[in-house]
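# nightly structure sweep
# worker-07 picked up a monomer target from the shared queue
# config: single-sequence mode, recycle default, output format = structure tokens
# input follows
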Amino acid sequence: MTRLVVSLDVPTAAEACRAARALGAAGAGVRVGPRLLNRVGPSVVATMHPEVEVLVDARIGGSCGEVAAGTRALGALGARWITVEGAIGPAAVAAAAEAAGEYGASLMATTVPPEAPDPPGGRGRAVSALAQVLSETGIAAVLGMAQDVGVVVQVAPTIPVVVFGAESTAEVTDALARGALAVVIEAGVARAVDPAAAAAPYIEAARAA
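# output follows
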């Protein structure tokens, strides 16, 4: 996976595609999140493939059949990475992982959402328990916070962590130093006049880490 992924926090499909082309050429991947998906629809993914590695952070939930169908739909559009809610249960996550594999995509499951309050017993305990459950589902990675990396390594060392929400080069360097597979940045890079130039310091930090 590309070590640096830039969130496409833009309002239109045209802007998303423009930024994706520039960022892909610069060596970064892109994240299509729930807000953009809801605004312009999942078909925007097909307009980016194969110019850039696309993480579709759809956080699919539901039954085994529902998550498998949703994963197949995104895989057919060219998504390289697809996320599901880790809390949907191991059977549903495994069904989604199998569906992703049919299209050569990889499945990523979320840990505790960053915007959620800490669960009873603390975030670390919840992430640890979830990682143990997910370790046998066939996922390729989990999507979490920087502090989740050490927790996941302890209980499920074969599952890498993609760190979400970095906003500075220091946070990129820190996450990768902790052992993260990749970092998703939320720094308004995609909205810049020149997204590649705006991403350059982050890409360099990822390469140097």
